[in-house]
Amino acid sequence: MSSTPLRRLPTSEARQAAVLAALTGRLAATAARHDADASFPHAHFAWLHADGLIAQVVPRGHGGGGAGLAEARRIVAAVAAGDPATALVLTMTYLQHRAIGRADSRWPEAVRRQVFASAVEEGALINSLRVEPELGSPARGGLPGTVATRVGNRWRLRGHKLYSTGIPALRWLAVWGRTHEPEPRVGVFLVPKPSADTPGIRVVESWNHLGLRASGSHETVFDDVWIPLDHAVDIRPPDAWAPAGASQADVDGNTDQQAWMVVLLGSLYDAVARAGFDWIHGFLRERAPGSLGAPLSTLPRVQEAIGEIAALLRTNQILLDDAAARADAGAPPTATDSGLVKYTVTGNAIRAVELALQLSGNHGLSRSNPLERHYRDVLCSRIHTPQNDTILTAAGRAALAR
What predicted TM-score, i.e. pTM, was given to this entire model? Predict the structure, then answer.
């Protein structure tokens, strides 16, 4: 545990809001440049660490903030309003901290302490590396091509991962792989990445995406990376993990973790939509074409469209706040209901920005204005697990079973 107490957010929500609003503005000042350059915003994470935010979900017993989901949601939303790429990396770290801090975590206690201490003391980031060129998303089933071979008292890891979000700054890589055994086990191998030149780890800077361009979601290649035996932190027979088409929450009954994932990612993309709403609100009040002789905001059809955006975002707020409150009370939504929250919130966020673009015309699609970037970023909400087909199939199956 760190000898220096972690800086925590004020307990008052009003004071929290003031601190987070200042952070939003600071992040927003450089977000467009990092998006244009597809450059990783290292300074943003130094700011987050200085405010104690990276370790806010780390349990208090390990020196962290012990934040619940409602507080984590407020932090992620504030960060995403300034720079959603930074918020995505922070979200992934929060999800890992929540998972390994749970009472039912299978991680060895010594390894867990090390990860938490590094977050508190150094602002160390962690993410899960799962997707592979041949396998695709593990949520769809199949054995990973990344292989861990036991050699003496160590594991040797070889493999290739895609979409390693945050890899330029990650300190810990929770790598999904399988053992080289007659009956392979599958699970998580924790790989430390103390520097950019860690032996055996090669980052292929291939991330050239439509949205979230500053997230550093490059490829990672493992070529004879050696880790201690206890860094096989959670490996099981394949049938102990989720079958094809099911989430891990469906297998473990871990609806709490599912709720955290849906609420934090939903908050991120809802914040992007709200940033777009703020921009179009100002644009419509200021834009006064000569042919109209008044601001666009005075037109009834414009007011109707703005009302529709407000309805979409209000719905999102109610759904996300409710799911967070239920999770914090120890009664999170079912995995199926969490999936429907994700489907609704992300669909509403995309629709809200699309409506803003319709109102703005060419101005909104100009790279000199932020709405174009918000639209590219919000579209990325569709690709996160669980994806829409899985969500709707599970919901349909549940409805038909009643």
Answer: 0.94
What is the architecture of the domain spanning 13-124? Orthogonal Bundle (1.10)
149-179 burial by CB neighbour count: b if 16+ within 10 A, else e? eeeeeebbbbbbbbbbbbbbbbbbbbbbbbb
Q: Is the dihedral of CA 216, 221, 226, 228 positive or negative?
A: positive
Among 172, 182, 188, CA closest to 122:
172
Alpha helices in 253-379 (DSSP H): 255-286, 300-328, 335-360, 362-365, 371-379
Burial 31-51 (b: 16+ CB within 10 A, else e): bbebbeebebbeebbebbbeb
Instruction: Tell which CATH classification among 2.40.10.340, 3.40.50.620, 1.20.1300.10, 1.20.140.10 matches the domain 248-401.
Output: 1.20.140.10
Q: Could you give the count of Cα atoms lying within 13 Å of 146 in the half-sphere of its Cβ?
A: 29
Q: Per-residue confidence of the chain (402 residues) as pLDDT tens digits?
A: 344 567 777 777 788 888 899 999 999 999 999 999 999 999 999 999 999 999 999 999 999 999 999 999 999 999 999 999 999 999 999 999 999 999 989 999 999 999 999 999 999 999 999 999 987 566 666 789 999 999 999 999 999 999 999 999 999 999 999 999 999 999 999 999 988 788 999 999 999 999 999 999 999 999 999 999 999 999 999 988 854 444 444 444 489 999 999 999 999 999 999 999 999 999 999 999 988 999 999 999 999 999 999 999 999 999 999 999 999 999 999 999 999 999 999 999 999 999 999 999 999 999 999 999 999 999 999 999 899 999 999 999 999 998
Q: How far apart are CA 227 and CA 231, in angstroms?
A: 6
The amino acid at 328? D
User: Could you give the CA distance from residue 101 to residue 58 in angstroms, rounded to a whole number?
Assistant: 7
CA distances from 132 to 52, 140, 326 (A): 33, 12, 34
- Residue at 381: amino acid letter: S
**What class has domain 129-240?**
mainly beta
